[in-house]
Amino acid sequence: MKSYGEFCALARGLDVVGDRWTMLVVRELLIGPSRYSDLHRSLPGIATNLLVQRLRSLEEAGVVVSTEEAAPVSSRVYSLTEWGRGLQAPLVELARWASPLMSAGAGADHSRGRWLVFSVMALFPKPDALPAKKRFPTVTARIDADGESVLVTSDVSGVNATVTCSGAPADVTVTGTSEQVFATLSGSTARRSQAVVSGPEIKVGLLRQLTALALTA
Fold this sequence. Notes:
Layout: H1 9-17, H2 22-31, E1 34-35, H3 36-42, H4 48-61, E2 64-69, E3 75-80, H5 82-85, H6 88-98, H7 116-123, E4 139-145, E5 148-155, E6 158-164, E7 172-176, H8 178-185, E8 196-198, H9 201-211
Parallel strand pairs: 4-7
Antiparallel strand pairs: 1-3, 2-3, 4-5, 5-6, 7-8
Helix pairs in contact: 6-7, 7-8
């Protein structure tokens, strides 16, 4: 990317991450370390040569590091450096700011179940930002959406999400399209847009308590 040539922290930050696709590459690596093939599959529409360029630029800038993993992976794996992980907070805030744009639905856009990991980061505040006398309930939910699974873990320390395997144990399961799951997690009360939630009634009730604490609820 051509530099803006401005002695300004924002401009210099955009010199590093302002190119098209760059922040989405960072999003994927915030979800977890990935091989090139995983990144290409998770970023529909990006040209192979462009992904190579973005990864090279991020490595040169010190945002990303790559390592050769031994068997059974036997591949180069990309991950964020400590400095690169510092992008999580501003990207989560950007996603929160853009949450109203999700109300239009997915339409013809691509969707991936794994992207719900980042949605969870954006939907739920830190425990110290909750209203007085409120706390996150203790519950785990496995999300099955668009052929991928995500495990959401909630307790008094906060809400976290990770990509998991199909069939991973959890208190409740949430099944549907990414659009339906996002609506459910965001506290939407429109039944027709809801994912299917299964599990013991008391655990489903805890999940409802959790979604009621979403910033979009």
